[in-house]
Amino acid sequence: xxxxxxxxxxxxxxxxxxxxxxxxxxxxxxxxxxxxxxxxxxxxxxxxxxxxxxxxxxxxxxxxxxxxxxxxxxxxxxxxxxxxxxxxxxxxxxxxxxxxxxxxxxxxxxxxxxxxxxxxxxxxxxxxxxxxxxxxxxxxxxxxxxxxxxxxxxxxxxxxxxxxxxxxxxxxxxxxxxxxxxxxxxxxxxxxxxxxxxxxxxxxxxxxxxxx
Length: 212
Known about the structure:
This protein folds into two domains: 6-54, RecR Domain 1 (Helicase, Ruva Protein, domain 3, Orthogonal Bundle); 77-206, 3-Layer(aba) Sandwich (Dna Topoisomerase Vi A Subunit, Chain: A, domain 2), CATH 3.40.1360. It is globular. Strands 4-3-5-6 form a four-stranded parallel beta sheet. Strands 1-2 form a two-stranded antiparallel ribbon. Helix content is 42%, strand content 12%. The longest helix has 21 residues, at 154-174. It is an alpha/beta fold.
């Protein structure tokens, strides 16, 4: 890469910093941009600049949006009695891609990870708790279920347990009746028991259902 013009080299180095992009892929992407027509390249640059300037967090659920409230929270058809809590916006996108869920969300933008110095105050847990507490103003839609959909790893489980405990405190304090649930985990369709790790098998046993 040392023989490349500095501007091209810097673009390639930037692409290499992106997740999942190696040195060769980064160089190909830089060359692709160089071959783009000038108007297209200018439009691409403008969109990147506007990405940061226009994107904000939804004031209700912390999803990404260009408005005060995201399209999901603004959708009158959505079932506001169900809130699914996810770690990241990409997790929300996975739910929406499958068209399997009609409730609303809360995006934490992270998870509790003490090894990386990320605690409960560093992610959007408190904003979820605020959504659940009665505020004395106009009556909120009564939430019937909170679905904790953090990832099934050590940090995700710790985050789910912390939120569960906080939600139980709110239920007790305000005499609320909503349920707190956790996504079921276990053997995937097409999976083979021979290659399953013990945690997957444990979750499969715990989340077993009747087969009648």
